[in-house]
Protein 1
Amino acid sequence: MRKILKDALIYIIVTLVIWGVMAIISPGKGLLAGETAFKTFVNSVEIVVGVLLIVGWIQVWVGPQTMSKFIGEKAGWKGLALASTVPMFMGGSLFIIFPLLKTLRDKGASMACTMAFISAWGGKAPLLPLEIEFLGWKFAVLRILFIIPFAIIMGISSQFILDKLQKRRQSTKSPGLDVSKE
Amino acid sequence: MDVGIIYLAIAFILYIVSAVKDIKKTKQALIAFGKILLTVLPVLFLVFILMGIVSVFVSKETITSWLGSSSNVFGILIGEIVGSFALISPIAIFPFAGVLRDRGAGYGALVGFVMTGILIGVSTLPLEIKMFGRNFTIVRNALTFIIVFLMGLIFMLVL
């Protein structure tokens, strides 16, 4: 809690300094910038509050534990299918996702699933209304449609590349093994 | 805004269902909401002010020439690079991208910025390397960058 307040204070101070410098350089433009900022804020405050309420709800009812039940030990196509879709409904930042996936990986989730999971999480479906508001529904819908194939391709191709890298490393480390593997 | 009210209504219903089922979890959800709000509001303050500054001080021509549809492929690359280095939370990415769009940025560059903004973080690289190893980190970030570039090309052609 303390860290949140500290970070908040830092952001507010940095913002005021930037804005202050602009206002000193050109008072008229500084005021106009503030006006634009305020208008954008008023336009989006309802959406932001609504979305964050839903994100908070999801965090409690669809927490990491629920998620690991889905994807943790399952392998193969079913796991990949889940890993390419479900995470897009999760919130959080990469700082939260990485430790969660580390746990899943230790529990036996495949490399492809791990990669697909991170990529699908980039879909950010709970933020969809915000995206529609600022970038238009065509952009938002097209991006969401692309997320699933994107996640699957990421999963499969990265597994392929990482397997190759692993093999090459093993063969350079112990050339004797390479022959028997071929 | 009508959309905002719809979302508030959905949230309201979700919380009523939640309260009926489990009052303790509902409290947790509200606390989680409060924490996110406290984290996000100052960031949005910064982003909105930056947006205001960009829209007042940076001319439309500048953004169009860097990120516009006429700058084609390079616009996507620039969008991706900016997104990779941007230290802003996903919630703030969309409003910022919105300003860039209004100032003439092309959709290819925008999707590059949004996707790398969410998925590639220079600030999270050390954590990723520590948890998953160097190979994993390099492959994930490089592949993401490449596939998002292809997405940018498609967005450029379709939208």
Note: Residues 1-46 of chain A form one domain.
Protein 2
Amino acid sequence: MAGVLLWCLAIVAAPLFEIDLLYRLFSAICHQLPDRSWFLDGHPLAVCIRCTAIYAGFLGALVVRLPASTRFLRIALAATALEWVGARLIGDVEAVRAVTGLLLGLASAGFVEQGIAEAAARIGRSRGQTFREVAS
Amino acid sequence: MRTCSKCGVTLGDQAQYCMQCGTPVDAPRQAGATEQSDFIQPAMIAGAALGILSSLPIVNAGNWCCCMWVVGGGALGAWLLARERPGGVGAMSYGDGAFVGVLSGLFGAFVATLVSIPVRLLTANVLRSQQQAFEEMFAEAEMEDAVREMLLQLLSPDLSFTTLLISFLINVLLFSLFAMIGGILYVAITGQKAGPQAPVEPAAKSD
């Protein structure tokens, strides 16, 4: 959770302290278009609204210990896909983009946390083995 | 406790074959085919795919959509791994998805950095015109100077060791992270979790 918190703080810190390196880092994973971003202190956040909402939802799910649910994840993914299509066919609504992103973040966190824990346990069990043995 | 050298399932004391995948119990772990057929091969294929897609001009804009190519690459790695497993994706844990995703991301970072060298050299003129177009667009949008400079630098056709090194380090960090998420979510969406994987013990300790 500390890593996710740091990630979210970096998104907010970029505009607050005008840190170029953070903008550059996040530019690899987000278009950073100002008209699709929230602003803080007169500058756009380091990622767009959808990405901000996803990360915020992710952090929120970890904080409240939201249990992982496959059905919730499928619904959240479908909602995000529908919003993406709808934005092109009907119209782009900022609030809908944010809500679907938030849902996707909330739904993903439990699975990602569990996956990381299991992968870490696998690596922990394999001390003394070569990389090839761990990866086979 | 004895475990299958191929799928990791716990074996009975008298078992001569694994009940899940049929591998002979005494089959050597260094059997070559087994090693290559598990995590590394799917990760290399997925890494090549996500690395190439993430470094081709225009196509790489897909990563601006929640790191689509990288997350998709992690999912591709998990899918390829599931195809090789006797129980399919149902026999995979989230940890398997995470592990193959991270490996795919690491391979992808190497591939993307390597591919970006000839791509930048070949598309120098296009990049230069794109840079000018973006510069005009940024001026109209009254974008912050620091952000504008940084984005224009990324679009610069100039190739230097520093640029490549920074790109590679960013790729390693982001690709392994997002490909891992892709691998995990693929298992979560498509498969029924089989529970944490059975312990994989070193061959020396299993006797």
Note: Helices of chain A lie at 2-17, 20-27, 49-63, 70-89, 94-125, 131-134.
